[in-house]
Amino acid sequence: MKDIYELVPKEEVPSEVVDDLDNFFSVCIDLCVVYYGNNNNSLSEALPKFIKNEKKPRYVSVDFQAGANAHYVTSTHRDNNGEAFEQIDEKSAMNISEEKLKSGEYFDYRFLKTAAELVLLEEEAKGNLRVREFTSTLMTRLDVFLYNAECKFMKETNCRYENEDDYLAKVFGISEESNETQLICIDSSEVGTDVLELMTSVVSRILFDYRKKQKGEKRRKHPVHLILDEAHRYIRKDTEYIMRENIFEKIAREGRKYSLFLMISSQRPSELSQTVLSQCGNYIVHRIQNEIDLNYIYSVLPYFSSDYVNKIKQAVPGEALIFGNCVPMPLMVKIEQASPDPNSKNCEIDKEWFKISLHDKNN
After folding, report:
1. Each residue of 193-243: pLDDT tens digit?
2. Residues 22 and 143 in one domain
3. How far apart are CA 255 and CA 234, in angstroms?
4. Would you give the end-to-end CA distance of the chain in angstroms?
5. How many domains does the chain have?
6. Is 63 within the bounds of a domain?
7. 39 pLDDT higher than 90
């Protein structure tokens, strides 16, 4: 940041612009120091060494060399008034650097926009004047997360978690010591599509990482099943999908090795990711009459013959075609009526309108 600031031709720029830029960098540096990752308060403890009465951070001088040869200079420096201030020593600086690079730790979301702006500013200083054009979509998505009211619940700080394992233990009841929780239902019916994509992907990625860390026999104990209703809302085949690197595709390909299994339910199979659909081992197909959906299933599943297509078209409510590893051959089955009945009956429109007509006549 100091190098970028020095590139500004201060003699050719109005003084108020230079002052604004100086204030901007001061705020950016302050945010970087305070919010740069989960580092066990190492940065917070180091912060007083950078700050004098005017609350402006001091810098660690670095001799910029190749890669790991970067060397932290440690000495006592004097400010413009000749007053000495203490600079962080090499050991503390390296400890902080190591802390913030640990895997499984994440940056505070408030740091994201600042970090992105700094990177863009540096690229522009290097002459890459179209960098903002190339990253406009990314920045728009970031702004949606930061300023969209629907994302507010994801940024609340009432509950603090030390790491992923602590989050899974407190929210889902999943831990190595206890696995008492058998079934967890997450109601996302009131959540917008964009927020739903982000929320389900993050939770699924945390679960995948947790299962992947298990070693030996632990990997085969306490399996986790993800059951996704209306799966076409967040397991899309669209190439412009916001979550292009879809975690659900990774779970479909690799989850079995880590005892993480996926069950998806959808009324629009043609909108599902081909990777996820083709990786499924078993299928239960209810009545489908939409040709697009039927053709999509036919194209993705090579052993899905035209005979099965006709059976699915002619199926009545409650009937389904089952095929896959769970049965020796495809079976057409009649599924028992649920007890108690779910509240899923259709409205009898003609009767309801007739009731309204009679009511109007009587009045």
Report:
1. 777 887 888 889 889 988 988 888 888 888 889 999 988 887 877 645 444
2. yes
3. 18
4. 78
5. 2
6. yes
7. no
Q: What is the 3-state secondary structure (H, E, C) of 15-81?
A: HHHHHHHHHHHHHHHHHHHHHCCCCCCHHHHHHHHHECCCCCECCCCEECCCHHHCEECCCCEECCC
Amino acid identity at 125: A
Q: Taking the alpha carbons of 298, 304, 310, 311 in that order, is the dihedral positive or negative?
A: negative
Range of the domain at 168: 154-357
Asked whether the beta carbons of 145 and 110 are under 8 A apart, the reply is: no
Q: Both 143 and 159 in a single domain?
A: no
Task: Evaluate whether residue 362 is within a structural domain.
Answer: no
Looking at the fold, whether 13 and 106 belong to one and the same domain comes out as yes
Q: Are residues 186 and 132 in the same domain?
A: no
CATH of residue 171 = 3.40.50.300
| Model confidence, pTM | 0.60
pLDDT in tens, 75-119: 444 555 555 544 545 555 555 555 544 455 555 666 777 778 888
User: Burial of 269 by CB count in 10 Å (0-12 exposed, 13-18 middle, 19+ buried)?
Assistant: buried
For 92, counting Cβ atoms within 10 Å of its Cβ (0-12 exposed, 13-18 middle, 19+ buried), the class is middle
